Each structure stands twice: as C-alpha cells, then as structure tokens.
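Protein in question kept in full:
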Amino acid sequence: MTFLTSVYLQSNKVFGIEIFDEDFYKLLLLFGLNLLVTIILSRLVYYPFNGKKREFIFAYMIIATAIFFLCFALKAFKFNTGIAIGLFALLGIIRFRTDTIPVKEMVYLFVFIGVSMINAFSKKMSWYEIVFINVAFISVAAFAEMLLHQKKVVKPASMDLTYGNITNTKPENYETLVTDITNQTGLDIERIKVGKINLKTQEADLKVYYKK
C-alpha cells in the first residue's frame, strides 16, 4: 500500500470524496420509504382505477426514483428555498414529446415528483412528519379515486303522455297500462303516474318514467 493510498484511507476520503457518511443510513431508509409509497400509489391506487395502464406504472416508478436520488444528491449544494421551489415548479410542468398526457396522469406525475422531492429534502424533518406526509398523500389519492369511481345514481328520464284508454288507468290494470305504453313507445318503463282524467274525451294525462 502506497503512502498516498494510506493518507486517503486514514482521512476517510478517496480523491476528495468521503468513503462513508452517516447520511447513508438515512438515504437507505428514505429511499425504502419512497419506493414503498411509490409502489402503493402506482400499483394499489392508480392502477386499479385507471384502466390498468402498466406503462404509466413504469414511468411513475422510474421518475420517482430518479427525482429522489437527484434531489438527495443536490441537497449537498444546500439550495435555498427559492431554488428548491423553482426546481419543483420546473419538474411539475414536464411534458413528454410523444402523446399528450391526460390531466389525471399529469396530476399523478406531479404527486410522484412532489413525494420524491419531499422525501429527499426531509433531512431536517422528524420521522413522524415524514411518515405522516407520505401516508397523507396515499390516503388523499385513494379517497379521491373512490369518490371519482363511486357509482352514480342515475335518475330515470320522464315524459308526459296523453293516453286514450282510461280503462287501463285503474289501479288493478296497472300492469296492462305499463305493457301497453311499452309496446307503443319501445321504452323501458320504470313507473307511470296517472294525472288528470278527462271523462268526456276518455283521455288521461300520464307521467311516464323510463330508463335512458
């Protein structure tokens, strides 16, 4: 072992770069957390609700990993808040030069970039704060997806009809009335409400509710 090599090892540096830094432990823990959150958001939240688009899962995981390591490395330069916000804004408006990305996918991209940057720049935060922020991202995204995909109650359409056979408007002939209106209109009748009945003209005003 040469004298030069010995000096490098004794100073814990090789060519000016430290061999080991205590921040390495935090890097491993934060990367593991960021990777876990990325997998949960992409595979368990985004994937089931958005047509099972595998290509976006690939993109989100790679981007999240790249952003995390980029920000963690840039942290050594001690960016001030203004530069960090500027970088965040720049990354938030990324556009791919292939197909136009839908709004929802862009929102998810923004979320992955945001989570990765927060995890990378969280050296001065407590673990309670870090975990809370990541869990909050997952919870809000999952809750928003469930609300978006919640089954909507479709109200039946309706129309007014003048019906010429008042015999079928009797309560005991309701099924006959529904069948007759269905045959004449071809609509999927849900219910019929009988309005005014004109005994002189033998006509009745009906409110017909049907499925669209």
